[in-house]
Structure formats: structure tokens, C-alpha cells
Design goal:
The complex is a heterodimer of chains A (about 170) and B (about 550). By secondary structure, chain A is of the alpha/beta class. Chain A has helices at about 1-25, 70-85, 100-110, 125-130, 155-165; strands spanning about 40, 50, 60-65, 90-95, 115-120, 135-140, 145-150. Chain A has five helices and seven strands. In chain A, a hairpin with a 5-residue loop joins strand 6 (about 135-140) and strand 7 (about 145-150). In chain A, helix 2 (about 70-85) crosses helix 5. The mean pLDDT of chain A is about 90. By secondary structure, chain B is an alpha+beta fold. Classes of the chains: A alpha/beta (about 170), B alpha+beta (about 550).
Chain lengths: ~170, ~550
């Protein structure tokens, strides 16, 4: 009986350690279900975007860079879907990995991106969200919790599906 | 569970080898031995007796010493595999793709396999951590399984022991005292007390004991190991442990990973070398530059109260510091270490707007690669328009220049040169060692003139609140080792029979030589009959029979 208890305690301790170790490399405190850390960025037009101000709306937080090929592939689809979902209260904010204004502005113009794009000059938001590979898209629900975190390229179908799931009721 | 009934009438739990009450041998195996096996006082080690339910089976597996040793060996081998090639943490490339390429490039096929098998990130891997945890479980269960019966036996041991127990100890003595006195036992008691033994007497039986605490040494050091292991496990709890690295170029300000709200600016990286002419050992080893100092001068900034990530405008300066190797910047438990550096990354490129034929320059433009401008205007009215900038040019895709990374390893530009002579503008693609003119021959070109570089520092950020726990675990471990190694548990049983014969038996868990010195002092002072070492006798018999075997 006692031995059973001891074994159970040990099993739980091991289970926790293993679980924590396996998920540690991925987003640390930022994971699906957790509250998305508040942040503020200034987009290329000089407008401020603060996550807290988007309460009640869905937010797609996309992290990207000009050299990132998968980002380049998914931006057209994102731009198309933005046109639709914009009117359904889902916002896209694309945060760039501290590149020069020149590069980012040229890229945005070439791609025809219509959603807000901001440059994270000090990589502060990148660090807060513990971003590793690019592209990473964080889908945030209207209540501020993270619905899902996608690392890697998304198909247009997936973009539609995910944006649908963070649409306010 | 079956009970074992001893001759003396006491019922013992199944698996007991020496009767708890009198010490007589109970099992057939024990009875066949000349000298008693005194490990664990002959008490039942649970794991050897129960074997029915799944709990028993799991418990018995982990309590086995063989399993424990196997686990230790496997752990050692696994850990050593991670040292064959540098682990991913120490390689200064970021993405998975780059890592794969690195191992393959630098270490060839072996590196490729190493990376593919996940051995390049071994210590964070699931299976390795499971191995370590299994070892921890083995330590815990083996200790509990043996420690508790041992403690009970030691606590409840009787003073008077059965003749069979006495006669089967390694050291025995029997006979009349050499000087007949009534107070032999008194002398024995006194002598033993002088030898610092704890003496218990029941009628004509004496048990003298010394150093019982040393038996617990092993269990104490196991507790220390477990505390240490818990300390390591706590690294995974958020807020307890941070071990991050950051690359910071001179002039850059960056948010510090793992340290919310703080930013670090690299003011300057300094590399100093010794001036001397290479001599002696240095020449032999082909060293012609010896580093004197790696230093990064930094400024630590903090966001204002109630700020959120992304608000990096009005940062408050916290402190400035010159981080040298092994002299980290410390702040509120965090430490910034100078770990690595890269020299001479291109920061600014200077071009001359040059007439190809006359080689005359219309002026110079200086492009800051961190902030290229769309239009550069020269004094004489000529303009250079920057149409595109590609920091790490890697080729064309459908006519569009591509960049592999954001680092200016191979900068390339698309210029539109607008001069009085060419008011519509001429387009030129300029990369290192490569100029392309897509619209046919231009009159002007952008000629590379000069470059400014800057250095980059690699810093490590550490925060560790588990250190006190690790220290405590380590101290407990060392205390346990010391207790178990430097002290020993000695016991002497003496009884006087009705006819005055003295019977003596003695046992220690280690250092029989010293034990015998105690016994010699006792024998002399209390005039006891000479004792014998039964194991010596056995060994001599063995040696004799071997000798006989050889002569035959």
C-alpha cells in the first residue's frame, strides 16, 4: 500500500519532469490556452497597435522576415483573406524581425500587403513570445487567449479555418 | 505471507535469514554458511520476498542493485556520447536547417548521422532525461527497500544472542578468563566504556556498540543525490532558471531574452592582443597572436513601469559595464557573460557614381546598411535611387534577387542613377564582384569605394535560483559519503555462562584491523581468553588445500 503510494508519487514527478522538458523547447510560458502577452508596436504608417485595444476582436500575430521563403509564399493568401475577415473583426498584425525600414517598405509594396506591418526594432515582441523559427503565426481569440500557434507555412485553407476560429461571435 | 518459526519460538517475517530475537540462522542457505551474513542484520529485504502484484514487480525491479548499477553504466555511456561532437547549444547558428548543414559540413557523414539521430541535442532529449529519472527512482526505491528494515533491526536488536548466532560471527572467543575474577563482566563493561563503546547489559550478557550512525551513511548520501536531482528538475519551472544567449552588434539595442522588460545595448566590442613577437612555445604551436582581453562595453536599460513588450522608446538606463571574460555584468540575480564574438561585419558601404569611360566620379554616397535611404542626392544635383537592397544575396529567382538571411554577408543593390546626362535614370545591379546592367550598356556605374565594419558580441544570460538547492544536495551527499566511509559500526557481544566461561563475538562492517585492536585492548584489560578470526582460518585452509592440489 505504502509502496503503491511511493511509486505513484514518483510516477507523477517523472511525468511532470518529462512533460515540462519536452514542451520547454517550444514556447515556454506562451502556449495555446495561455493569455497572450500584451504588446505595442508602431506600424509603417506610424499608427500604434496595442493588443489590449483589440479585446473583443480576433488577432493574427504573424512574425516574419524578408529572407523567409515560406513567409513569402503565404503572404498573398493572407492578404486575400484579410480582405474578407477584416469586416468580421479579425485583424492581422505582421511583425518584422528588426530589419531596415527600407527593406520592409519595399517588400510590403512589392507584395501588396494591406494589413498593418510593424518592425520590432529591439526584438522585444519576438523575445516576449519566444519566437524561434519563421514564419510563426499566433492566433489570438477575442478574449485575449491564444487559440493556436503555427510555426511554418500555412495553406490558404488553413488560414481561412484558423481565422474563422478566432472570429468574435 | 508465510512466517518463519525459529527454534527459540519467535515468528519472523518471510525472507528473514537471521532470527530477529536470537540470531539463529533460519534459511537453509544461511545454515550452510560457517560465518553469518550480517548484511542488513539478516532482516527481510522486502523485494526479495513479495513478488505477486504489479506494484511488487515494479518495486522489485527498481530496488535491485544489479538494475541500479546497469542504469548507472547506461547513463554514463549515454552522457559520454553527447561529448563526441559539440552540442547544438554551443554552435552559433539559429535555425534547424542551418544546424543540419553545420554538422554535415563540419563533421561530414558522421556529423550528419549524429544530427539525424538527435545526438546533437542529447541532454534535453526525452530519452536521456528518462534515463536520469529512472536512476533517481532506483536510488529512492533501493534505499527505502533496504533502509527501513535495516533501521528497524538496528533499533530492536537484543542484548542476549543465541549460541548459534555468537558462534557464527567472524570473531569468536570462548574459554575461561586467564585470571579468575568475579568481576570479569565488570571489567569488560569498564574497558568497553573506556574504548568509547555504548554498553548495554542484561544479567550476564553484554552488547557493546559503537558507530551505529555510520550505517546510515549510504542512505544519507542518497538523500543528497535526490535533493540535487530535484534541484536540476527545478530548472524546468518557469522563473527558476534562465540560460539564454544573444548576439549583439555594436550600436544595437535588443530586448534581453529571459529578462522581461530589460534591454541591452552594445556600445563597443574590444579585442586586445599581446604585442610580443612570437617566441618559444608560441612558435612551436604556430600561434602568432595571443588574446589579452575580450570585452564588450554595454549599457543595460529598463522599460518604465507598466510597459509592455514593443515599447522601446523611453528606456531608463540602469547601468553601464565592461563585460570581460569571467567578469559578468550582474543585476538582480541575472548575469551577462562575454562568450563569443565576430569581427568586421559590414555596416556601411561607400560608392562612387562614376562615369565608366572617363573614370570620373560625380560624387560619393554612403549607405548605412542598417538604414538604407530611398534616395541619395549628390551635391551637383545627381541622384542615386535605391531600388532594392539584399543583405545576403543568394541568386536570382524569376529575375528577382533573393536574400538568404538578414545578415549583410553578401550585400547587393539595385541602383537607379539619375544624372544630368541620363535624366531617365540607368539601372544597375551591384553585388560583390558582380555588376549587371539589365537595360544594356550604361554610361555610369556605382563603383565600390570603401566599407565600414562593426563587431558583434555573443553574450550569455544566466539566472539560476536552484544553486542553493544544488549546494545543499551536494553537502548532504558529501556528509553521507564521509559518514559511511570514515566511521564504522562495531559491536561486541560478551556473555558469561553459569560455569564462568566467557563467550565473545564481534562484528564490524569495515576495518577489521582496527576492530581487532579494540579487542586486543579488551582481552588484555579484562583477562579474556584469546579470540580467533574464523575467516582467517577458512582462508588458511583454502590456501593449504590449494597447495596440496599443486603438489599432487
Amino acid at each position: 500500500m505504502t509502496r503503491g503510494i511511493i511509486l505513484t508519487i514518483l510516477a507523477i514527478a517523472i511525468g511532470y519532469t518529462v512533460y515540462a522538458a519536452v514542451t520547454k523547447d517550444k514556447i515556454n510560458i506562451v502556449q495555446a490556452g495561455a493569455q497572450a502577452p500584451d504588446f505595442e508596436v508602431i506600424d509603417l504608417h506610424g499608427e500604434k497597435h496595442r493588443l489590449k485595444d483589440y479585446e473583443g476582436k480576433g488577432v493574427v500575430l504573424n512574425f516574419w522576415g524578408t529572407w523567409c521563403e515560406p513567409c513569402e509564399r503565404e503572404f498573398p493568401a493572407m492578404t486575400r483573406q484579410y480582405a474578407e475577415f477584416k469586416h468580421q473583426d479579425v485583424q492581422i498584425i505582421a511583425v518584422n524581425f528588426a530589419q531596415s525600414e527600407f527593406e520592409v517598405k519595399k517588400y510590403v509594396a512589392n507584395m501588396g500587403m494591406t494589413f498593418p506591418v510593424a518592425i520590432d526594432k529591439t526584438k522585444s515582441v519576438f523575445t516576449a513570445y519566444n519566437i524561434g523559427p519563421l514564419p510563426t503565426s499566433i492566433f489570438i481569440k477575442p478574449d485575449g487567449t491564444i487559440n493556436r500557434i503555427i510555426t511554418g507555412e500555412m495553406t490558404e485553407g488553413e488560414i481561412v479555418q484558423y481565422m474563422e476560429s478566432i472570429k468574435p461571435e | 505471507m508465510n512466517k518463519l518459526l525459529c527454534e527459540c519460538g519467535h515468528e519472523n517475517p518471510e525472507g528473514t535469514t537471521l532470527c530477529q530475537k536470537c540470531g539463529s540462522p533460519l534459511s537453509a542457505e544461511e545454515k550452510s554458511k560457517k560465518i553469518a551474513d550480517m548484511r542488513y542484520e539478516g532482516s527481510a529485504i522486502r523485494s526479495k520476498t513479495y513478488n505477486k502484484s504489479i506494484i511488487d514487480k515494479i518495486w522489485n525491479f527498481f530496488s535491485s542493485v544489479k538494475v541500479g548499477i546497469t542504469l548507472i553504466i547506461i547513463n554514463l555511456i549515454a552522457a559520454s556520447i553527447g561529448t563526441i561532437l559539440p552540442q547544438e547549444f554551443y554552435i552559433s547558428v539559429a535555425t534547424d536547417a542551418e544546424k543540419e548543414k553545420y554538422y554535415s559540413d563540419v563533421y561530414g557523414w558522421f556529423g550528419e548521422i549524429y544530427y539525424a539521430l538527435g545526438l546533437s541535442d542529447l541532454y534535453s532529449s526525452l530519452w536521456f532525461q528518462l534515463l536520469v529519472l529512472m536512476l533517481g527512482v532506483s536510488i529512492i526505491i533501493a534505499s527505502i527497500d533496504r533502509g527501513i528494515p535495516l533501521h528497524k533491526s538496528l533499533k530492536n536488536q537484543r542484548v542476549k544472542r543465541h549460541t548459534n548466532f555468537m558462534k557464527r560471527q567472524r570473531i569468536i572467543g570462548e574459554g575461561k578468563p586467564t585470571e579468575t575474577r568475579e568481576q570479569t563482566l565488570q571489567l569488560v563493561e569498564q574497558s568497553l566504556k573506556n574504548l568509547k563503546y555504548n554498553v548495554r547489559r542484561e544479567d550476564s550478557s553484554i552488547l557493546a556498540e559503537r558507530g551505529r550512525f555510520s550505517r546510515y551513511g549510504a542512505y544519507i548520501n542518497h538523500v543528497g543525490l535526490i535533493v540535487f536531482l530535484i534541484g536540476v528538475m527545478l530548472h524546468l519551472v518557469p522563473g527558476m532558471y534562465v540560460d539564454e544567449s544573444m548576439w549583439l552588434r555594436e550600436g544595437e539595442t535588443r530586448a534581453v531574452p529571459g529578462m522581461d522588460g530589460y534591454f541591452l545595448k552594445n556600445d563597443k566590442f574590444i579585442l586586445e592582443t599581446y604585442d610580443n613577437v612570437p617566441q618559444g612555445e608560441q612558435i612551436k604551436q604556430g600561434v602568432n597572436v595571443v588574446a589579452k582581453n575580450f570585452q564588450t562595453d554595454v549599457t543595460l536599460y529598463k522599460q518604465k513601469e507598466n510597459s509592455v513588450p514593443g515599447q522601446a522608446e523611453n528606456l531608463e538606463e540602469v547601468k553601464q559595464y565592461g563585460i570581460q571574460v569571467n567578469h559578468p555584468l550582474k543585476h538582480e540575480g541575472y548575469a551577462f557573460y562575454q562568450m563569443d564574438f565576430r569581427l568586421n561585419e559590414i555596416k556601411t558601404m561607400v560608392f562612387d557614381l562614376t562615369n565608366k569611360e572617363t573614370e570620373q566620379s560625380l560624387g560619393q554616397i554612403s549607405i548605412d546598411l542598417t538604414n538604407p535611404q530611398e534616395m541619395y542626392t549628390l551635391d551637383n544635383g545627381a541622384q542615386v535611387q535605391l531600388m532594392g537592397y539584399y543583405p545576403d544575396f543568394s541568386g536570382f529567382k524569376e529575375g528577382v534577387p533573393q536574400t538568404a538571411t538578414q545578415t549583410p554577408n553578401n550585400p547587393a543593390f539595385i541602383f537607379k542613377m539619375i544624372t544630368p546626362e541620363t535624366p531617365e535614370g540607368e539601372t544597375s545591379f551591384v553585388a560583390i564582384q558582380q555588376t549587371l546592367e539589365p537595360e544594356g550598356d550604361n554610361i555610369y556605374k556605382m563603383k565600390f569605394s570603401n566599407v565600414e565594419t562593426r563587431h558583434m558580441s555573443g553574450l550569455t544570460i544566466r539566472y539560476d535560483r536552484t544553486i542553493p538547492i544544488l549546494i545543499v544536495g551536494g553537502i548532504i551527499f558529501m556528509i553521507g559519503v564521509a559518514i559511511g566511509s570514515y566511521w564504522n559500526h562495531r559491536r561486541i557481544w560478551v556473555e558469561q555462562l553459569a560455569d564462568g566461561t566467557i563467550r565473545l563475538a564481534a562484528h564490524t562492517n569495515k576495518n577489521w584491523f582496527s576492530m581487532k585492536k579494540d579487542l586486543d585492548a579488551l582481552t588484555k584489560h579484562a583477562h579474556l581468553p584469546q579470540y580467533v578470526d574464523q575467516q582467517e582460518i577458512e582462508n588458511n585452509e583454502h590456501v593449504e588445500t590449494e597447495k596440496d592440489g599443486k603438489t599432487l
